Amino acid sequence: MREVVDGVFELRLGYVNVHLVVTDDGVVLVDTGLPGQASVIERALRPLGTLHAILLTHHHPDHAGNAAALRERTGARLIAHAAEAPFLTGHFQAAEPEGRLRKFLFRRIAKVEPTKIDQLAGDGAEPLPGFIAVHTPGHTRGHLSFQLDRAGGVLFAGDAVTSKDGKVTGLDPRVVADPERAAESLARLAERDFEHAVFGHGPAISGAAADRFRIVGKDGD
Ligand SMILES: [Zn+2]
Ligand SMILES: [Zn+2]
Q1: Which of 14, 156, 193, 214 has an alpha carbon 20 to 30 Å from 186's alpha carbon atom?
Q2: Within a 13 Å sphere around the CA of 146, how many CA atoms are in the beta-carbon half?
Q3: Residue ranges of the chain whose pLDDT lies below 70
Q4: Distance 130 CA to ligand 1 centre (A)
Q5: What are phi and psi of 188, to 5 degrees?
């Protein structure tokens, strides 16, 4: 586990990252990894404090995989966008494009235990003190990024974008439900000011992170 900035830790679970943030109220977890890894996350939590809340960027199994288990075991509140709710509670419509994408992902990766959302967060909401939700649809309809007011700003980009070799890149088009909205979301993130950025996939960028988002934005990549 690596400390990206003061009290913000990156835990790599295979090809996906989860992030643990130490706050005055306890530890906030951003995303939960693939199913079956709740114990690994709990071990990482132990020296940091008790789990207070889970911020979910979106419902995909590599992000929501342990949400049900951790919520049940710790009593932490689960926070997500309303448009992700049907996929998390298991009431999704298979005919919708996101339903198809979800089925594709689930077949390929894993099944996710359904769970309840305790608190909904929309664009601009402050779901927890110091965290601002930014609605960044495209990869999924209810995808949220989060910006933490710490160390000049830490952006939790989820799967809105990914990072490779210190650069910000778009996701594989096969896993983007709506490419046009994904591009708009990236442009909106590029307008924000933050020093650091962490991603669902790919290593964190520390220092002048927003600039890297602007380079991608200009290329229309
Ligand atoms: Zn995803
Ligand atoms: Zn992902």
Answers
A1: 14
A2: 29
A3: 92-110, 217-221
A4: 24
A5: -70, -40
Domain extent at residue 147: 2-219
Spatial separation of the C-alpha atoms in residues 160 and 146, rounded to whole Å: 11
| Entry pTM | 0.91
Cite the DSSP H helix spans in 117-208: 179-190
Helix (H) or strand (E) holding 206: strand 205-206
The percent of residues above 90 in pLDDT, for the chain, comes to 80
CATH assignment of the domain containing 111: 3.60.15.10
pLDDT computed for residue 171 by the predictor: 82
213: left (phi over 0), alpha (psi -120 to 50) or beta: alpha
Residue 47 CA, ligand 1 centroid: distance in Å:
29
pLDDT at site 175:
83
Residue 75: what pLDDT?
97
Number of separate domains in the chain:
1
Q: Which ligand lies nearest the alpha carbon of 102?
A: 1
Phi, psi of 153 (to 5 degrees): 105, 125
Q: CA 50, 56, 60 angle in degrees (round to 5)?
A: 125
What integer pLDDT is reported at residue 68 of this predicted model? 97
Q: Which ligand is nearest to the CA of 138?
A: 1
CA gap 187, 211 in Å, rounded: 12
The 3-state DSSP composition of the chain as helix, strand, coil percent (nearest 5) reads 30, 25, 45
